[in-house]
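Chain A, query sequence.
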Amino acid sequence: MMGVAHLRIRWHGHACFEIAGSSIVVTDPHDGKSIGIRPPKVVGDVVLVSHDHFDHNCSRVVAGSDTSVIGDAVMTVEKGVRIEGIEGAHDEQDGAKRGKIVLFRFELDGVSFCHLGDLGHILDEEQTSRLGGTDFLFVPVGDVFTIGPEAAMRVMEQLGPRIAVPMHYRTPGLSLSIRPVGDFLELVDDSRVSKVGNEVEFSSDDLPESGTDVWVFSE
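Chain A, predicted structure.
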C-alpha cells in the first residue's frame, strides 16, 4: 500500500512553480529581469516548458547538468515523474494569434498536477478527458495573454481539481499589463481560499475530500 506523500510547492513568480518531492519539477521558468521580477533560484530534475515565449522558456536558469527539459506534447517518465503533454493554444483561434502551447499533466509521488501554461481558451472534450481529475491545477487568470477570471472558473469546473492555484496575474514589479489575482478571487467562495505565502509543505492527506480549494501564493 502506498504511503502518504509529503511534498512542497514554491512559487517563483508568474507561471513558474517548483514542486519538490522525491524529484523536483519546475514549470515555465523565466529569467526574472525580462519581466521585472526576481529570477527563480532552484535547480530542477525536470523542467516543463509550455511554450517558447520569453516569460516561460528560460530553462537555462533552473537546469542542471542532469536536468530533463520537456517542451513537447509527449508521454514520458523522467526522474520518476510521469508526464503527459497535450496540445493547446495560446488564444481562442487555435493558435493563429499567439501559437500553440503544451498543457502538462504529471504525477510525482502519487500526487497529480496539471499546469496550463498560457492557456487562451476553454478546453475541448478531449483535453478535458485527458487532463481532468488531477489533485492540483495551475491555471492562468490574468487575461490579456491568457484566459481571464471567468474562463478560469469555467476551466476549473471542467477539470474538477482538489486544489486550484491561480497564476499568471499582475504582481508588484511585473512589466506585463495583466489583471490582478483579486479579480479572480471575487468569483471564488471565500471559505475555499487559503493564502499560503511563497511556499507550502503538505501531505496527500491534507487535500480536500470533495470540491475545489484555492491556494493563493504570494512572492
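The chain has a mean pLDDT of 90. The two ends are 37 Å apart (CA to CA).
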